[in-house]
Amino acid sequence: MAVKTLQNLLDEGVEGRGVLVRSDLNVPIDNGTITDPGRIIASVPTIKALVEAGAKVVVTAHLGRPKGAPDPAFSLAPVAARLSEELGRNVQLAGDVVGGDALARSEGLTDGDVLLLENIRFDARETSKDEAERTKLAKALVELVGDDGAFVSDGFGVVHRKQASVYDVAKLLPSYAGNLVATEVDVLAKLTEEPARPYAVVLGGSKVSDKLAVIEALAPQVDTLVIGGGMCFTFFAAQGYSVGNSLKQDEMIDTCKDLLDRFADVIHLPKDVVVADSFSADAEAKVVASHQIPDGWMGLDIGPESTKRFSAVLGAAKTIFWNGPMGVFEFEKFADGTRGVAEAIAGATAKGAFSVVGGGDSAAAVRSLGLPDDGFSHISTGGGASLEYLEGKELPGITALEGTA
Ligand code: 3PG
Ligand code: MG
């Protein structure tokens, strides 16, 4: 990508300049506690480099999907506290997005200070379809860093969104790719440009409809496409199996049939599954063949035989991309498939394979199962963004930076 980078900005000099950074700090929060700080930690290097170079740093980010108005449940307050800890310096939180408090605080910044704006999605213009509306918000953001300000785009997880703080603001200020965005794009480019073979992709998660485009794009390019998670039941239904109470998207059955016809030699489905009598951590569970799911039962994980087969394929792969858990890993009884696949990928990585874990859920699975981050070549901070990149779609947050170098 022909874009200017953070290093270019640092070379130009930022001491005393206002720099607006778009980060993706959208972390899972349970009762006020951050359960996976991965995205905050990944955002630190860019912010730190700017702080150390003496910039007045204004960070903007979203949390969840509030409805375009302030909502305390989606406040970035816990994120500001954690970012302070990770950065080792105080991060102020503005009480609003681009209002009086944000403006006053930005004017009070001295060199090396960091101000985090309140959740950018508290302002309905952020996600507006109307470009003029988005531009108004982008202009208000520009005001916070002043006329000689700069914009650093570092929220990789959100670059697939055409939103004011991601896309429109890049047209108003000199713009640069932050370290995280640059690294993520480099890694994903390696998957698309002559990947070492065999190349295996593992897809899980609940909905076929979410993964359809990436299946279509990747199936012709890869040697193996392993499909697990909730979406495998729609494929089973396409094969004519009855799936009991398992998740199933009826409107996708024909599409799954067509995919199985066209990519029979590439797609691997589980041969056995763990079924449960209810969706709960302490449900009664048993292993059955994929074509023998009893009425009244639901599949919540891939079975041990499938984990073994998938692990063998993955163990031989030289390039691996994984998105989506194999089962309901949040319940210990149904975590074995995801754990087994993760361990097989880590094992292949230890033998020299290049592995990328994409997506918030898969990254959270890796961490909650106690696997070390460095068992994989790269854990992406972007779920939707990494999938859209691999689908070959344009990413507005990247397009907006192009032509800067
Ligand atoms: C994510 O969690 O996928 C990113 O932060 C983007 O969030 P969004 O899907 O709500 O746009
Ligand atoms: Mg998302």
Give your account of this protein's structure.
The protein is of the alpha/beta class and 405 residues long. Helix content is 36%, strand content 16%. The protein is built from 14 helices and 17 strands. It has a six-stranded parallel β-sheet with strand order 5-6-4-1-7-8, with helices on both faces. A six-stranded parallel β-sheet has the order 11-10-9-15-16-17, sandwiched between helices. The protein has a three-stranded antiparallel β-sheet with strand order 13-12-14. Helix 12 (360-368) links the parallel strand 16 (354-357) and strand 17. The longest helix has 15 residues, at 38-52. The protein is elongated. The mean pLDDT is 96. 3-phosphoglyceric acid is lined by residues 24, 26, 65, 157-158, 161, 360, 383-384.
Overall average residue pLDDT: 96
The percentage helix is: 25-40%
Category from helices, strands and their pairing:
alpha/beta
Give, in spatial order, the strands making up the sheet with the most strands.
Answer: 5-6-4-1-7-8
Specify Rg, calculated over alpha carbons: 22 Å
What small molecules does the structure contain?
3-phosphoglyceric acid, magnesium ion
Assembly type: single chain
Major β-sheet profile: 6 strands, parallel
Number of strands: 17
What share of the residues does DSSP label as strand, in percent?
A: 15-25%
Give the low-confidence spans: none
What is the count of helical runs?
A: 14
N→C terminal distance: 9 Å
Q: Overall 3D geometry?
A: elongated
Pathway: Carbohydrate degradation; glycolysis; pyruvate from D-glyceraldehyde 3-phosphate: step 2/5
Enzyme class: transferase
Subunit structure: Monomer.
Binding site for substrate: 24-26, 39, 62-65, 121, 161
